[in-house]
Specification:
Distance between the termini: 47 Å
Strand order of the largest sheet: 4-5-6-7-8-9-10-11
Shape: globular
Strand content: 5-15%
Number of strands: 11
Largest sheet: 8 strands, parallel, barrel
Structural class: alpha/beta
Helix content: 40-55%
């Protein structure tokens, strides 16, 4: 059962009412909105993700992984276009953009009345040094300062489920910070309290049990949801949990869901040619990204779908998709479920390029290496058999593209398997294993010159 059917099945318990414009053509109209029953917030179905903001070029002589800082003028321009298009939900974190995202968004959004938009940020207390209560409190207070506000509309416990179950207790329960956050909600400094989930399903279930037992009330929960992860998340990564279960558990309790990774780190925006042909047969004018966004926005219990829109053209295209959003039909849902199964026959690495694994102590550009491999996979350029008539062309594209995207000194060949990166990955990818596989494949191609 795909997400369209699932949404219909659960519609009677949906906690969100769709507020959309009347039916209009695909050239765009009014933004689609959903209503949060906890506060009555009328939230744009397209949310602005602030993990990857535009940056300026690095100054001459700067280290390779440096940039010239956030391009504040471009951020301001894109925020202006987003707000003019009806977007009113902005999601950031102290951890995003090397710690610079909240300041940039605070400057951009402070030019508008505070009650005209909703701010979401996170308690990103991953490091043990931030686990003491006063350190976590300091992080929250800094968020308010950087965002130029005296309250947060949506506050999330960040990456619940990453690491051990004990980490949840250390980060939120033993130090009393969760009780303190509940007090801040009562005082109006937090209007909605929730968490973003990755990884250990035991922690997800524990957090919902707290809700069931009345220890606290979750106003919303942020989950990874897309047409691959609906039923194939565990097939893609054995430690992940299918979105079908996550969405169903939230909807059963009347808790709003916020969607992250609707494009699965960009993988669903660049599908292989054979999969693109299947999509274009049904809707010739639609991009793969539009298919994925329509999928993520169709269920009634979704409050908003986050998209990291680094470039203006991405923002404008997404505004068209959600203004208004045309929900998937049952036939289109079945098409995407078929495509998801085909994608799992040749699984990509579930990297979302969040950069949490960086910097590598040995200088490896992990996200770019994974992105290149996934791109080659999507373009049907992963070929093992030298007798394949496509082999020579695929080999050249892989190796030439690899050297262009990732300098030799930063490629997978330099991974020694130290494992420093792995604990920081929200997708719980076995990073050294994947790097070794990519290097083995690249070396095999080089030997077959």
């Amino acid at each position: 059962m795909g997400i369209g059917a699932g949404a219909t099945m659960l519609a009677g318990t949906s906690c969100v009412t769709r507020q959309a414009s009347s039916e209009q053509d695909d050239e765009g109209g009014e933004m689609t909105y959903r209503v949060n029953p906890s506060t009555g917030d009328r939230v744009s179905l397209l949310g602005y993700g602030c993990m990857r903001l535009p940056v300026l070029p690095a100054p001459a002589g700067a280290p390779e992984n440096e940039d010239g800082g956030i391009d504040q003028e471009e951020v301001n321009r894109q925020v202006d276009v987003a707000i003019a298009g009806g977007v009113n939900y902005f999601d950031t974190s102290p951890a995003y953009c090397k710690g610079r995202s909240e300041k940039a968004m605070g400057e951009a959004l402070s030019r508008y009345p505070r009650d005209s938009y909703f701010l979401a940020t996170k308690l990103s207390n991953f490091d043990e040094s931030t686990w003491p209560r006063e350190k976590s409190q300091e992080m929250f207070e800094n968020s308010l300062k950087y965002l130029r506000t005296d309250y947060v509309d949506y506050l999330l416990l960040h990456c619940v489920g990453v690491g051990s179950f004990e980490a949840f207790n250390h980060r939120y329960e033993e130090n009393g910070i969760l009780d303190w956050l509940i007090e801040q909600r009562q005082n109006g400094r937090i209007r909605n309290l929730g968490f973003s989930y990755h990884g250990d399903i035991e922690v997800f279930d524990h957090a919902l049990k707290m809700h069931d037992e009345g220890r606290l009330k979750w106003d919303f929960v942020q989950i990874q949801l897309n047409y691959v992860d609906w039923e194939q998340a565990k097939a893609d990564n054995e430690r992940e949990t299918d979105a079908k279960y996550l969405y169903g558990e939230l909807t059963r309790r009347g808790i709003c869901a916020v969607v992250m990774e609707p494009l699965l780190g960009g993988r669903l925006a660049n599908v292989s040619n054979n999969l693109l042909a299947i999509m274009q047969k049904d809707r010739p004018g639609d991009t793969p990204a539009k298919w994925a966004f329509r999928y993520a926005g169709t269920p009634e219990n979704i409050l908003t779908v986050l998209s990291g829109m680094t470039y203006m053209d991405h923002l404008k295209e997404n505004l068209k998709t959600f203004s208004p959003l045309h929900p998937l039909t049952a036939e289109e849902d079945a098409t995407l479920m078929h495509i998801a199964r085909l994608m799992m026959e040749h699984p990509a690495i579930p990297c979302t390029e969040c950069q949490y694994c960086m910097p590598c102590p040995y200088g490896i550009d992990i996200p770019s290496t994974f992105a290149h491999y996934n791109q080659m996979l999507n373009e049907d350029n992963i070929v093992d058999d030298a007798r394949d008539p496509h082999f020579a062309q695929a080999r050249k594209r892989f190796l030439v593209g690899y050297d262009r995207k990732v300098p030799r000194l930063r490629q997978a060949a330099h991974c020694i398997g130290c494992g420093v990166c792995a604990p920081h990955c929200p997708q719980e990818i076995h990073i050294p294993d994947e790097l070794h596989k990519i290097n083995a494949y690249a070396e095999k191609l080089r030997r077959q010159a």
